[in-house]
Each structure stands twice: as C-alpha cells, then as structure tokens.
C-alpha cells in the first residue's frame, strides 16, 4: 500500500507536519484534536482575551470573525481600529479576501492558523 503523501512535494509534506503539530498542541491542551472552526474559535478567544464556559452562538461567530481578521491582518486585508469597552477588537476591511474554492480556502486558513500558533 503506497504512503498517502508519496506524491506530495517536500513543502507540502513539511506543511502537513506543521499543521499536525499545531493541532496536536491544541489537542494536548484541550483534550481533543480540533478542526479549523475550533482553531478559529480559540484564536478569537485568545485575541479577545476572554475565557468563558458557555458562549452564545452569535458570540462564537464574532470570535471566529475576529480570528479571520487577525489572521489576514498581516496580508493587508484588515486593519485593527481598536477595541471597544468590553475589550473586543474591531477591524476595518481594506480589501476583499480572494474568492477561492473550498479546498483552497481550507488550505489558506490552515496556513494562516499554523503561522499564528507558531508565532505564540
């Protein structure tokens, strides 16, 4: 049986390992291996600086939005305007993130998530 990654480039293999290591780091901290949505939720919580047991659905969406803004700030898509009285960051959109097919979106988000966690 051939290895799953035998046709991948060295860069793809390296990234796959980095993604695995980040997910494993989060798994060791929280007890389960996260998907992209959980990773965005955690980044959002980290950026807001608020930890709660229960989040409302709208708050979860807001946290994930904060995460996306933070991840793409370095690419010039968003600029941090400041924080509100509750400590939530607010971003201004500078340009639209390019439209990508779902697989490309996932890959781009994974890369930005890995960069974020590696910078901590």
Short account of what is shown:
The chain has 120 residues and is mainly alpha-helical. Helix content is 57%, strand content 9%.
Structure in words:
By secondary structure, the protein is mainly alpha-helical. It has one domain. It is 57% helix and 9% strand. The protein is built from four helices and two strands. The protein has a two-stranded antiparallel sheet with strand order 1-2. Helix 2 crosses helix 3 and helix 2 packs across helix 4. It is globular and about 50 Å long. The N and C termini lie far apart (38 Å).
> Which secondary-structure class do the elements indicate?
mainly alpha
Percent helix: 55-70%
**Tally of separate helices:** 4
Strand portion, in percent? 5-15%
The whole-angstrom Rg is 16 Å
Shape call: globular
Low-confidence stretches: none
Largest sheet: 2 strands, antiparallel
Instruction: Give the integer mean of the pLDDT values.
Output: 91
How many domains is the backbone divided into? 1
Number of strands: 2
Distance between the termini: 38 Å
**Order of helices and strands, N to C?**
HHHEEH
- Strand arrangement within the widest β-sheet reads 1-2
